[in-house]
Specification:
This protein is α/β, with parallel strands linked by helices. The chain contains 10 helices and 10 strands.
Length: 250
Amino acid sequence: MGVELERKGSLLCLTLNREERLNALDTDMRTAIAEALNAASEDDEVRAVVLTGKGARAFCAGQDLHESQQLSPEAGDAWMDTWQRFFAAVSQCRKPIVAAVNGTAAGAGLQLALMADLRVAVPTARFLMAEINVGLPAIAGSYLLQTHLGQARMRELVLTGRVFTAEEASEWGLVQETRPPDQLLERAEAMALHLAEKPPVAMRLTLEMLRGMMRRGLSEAETAAVQYQSEAIATGEPQAQMARFFEARR
């Protein structure tokens, strides 16, 4: 299903494994991630989660454009429903999540990293909220970037769809540390283990409060995304943009 799961003591290591598609999220992969995190939330032996991507090129390139390009206008609501279940599982996970950003994090891949509690990245990592570039409004992404960076920076990144670097992300506090590729996962696991060793009740209650703060705004953003992204899909503009993207790549 495009996801590798490995238990390392009290840690659950979840690796996005679609390297040939830059670990882009299709429906099966989103479902697998949601199921794994929902299960981790209920497993007392899992105390923290490490999330990373396979390979050296990408953490997650966002939604799978091969899938979304094929969407019919009437499929927009059902497609958005799968995204809502995915966002709910990540943002309501009852265990702390450390993201090891091993490469590009774009669009929904950046959103996934932003929903983690801590982030460590390779110095060559690149980040972008890419929706505007493929004809889609960045609704949930706007909310998450605003939460982390404030209105001014969020507007710049969302409206331009520009790439920003690991160095910038570190300066802004978006990434806690940068590490070379051969040290990335080890450091992320150490950070997760540090969280796993905290008193479990205090961790659970603190996360419950933090998740609640995130969910209130994110739920509103998700509701708006259903409306705005479905409206965009119904116009055919995203499909046309994606077709041009694939044609340019060819």
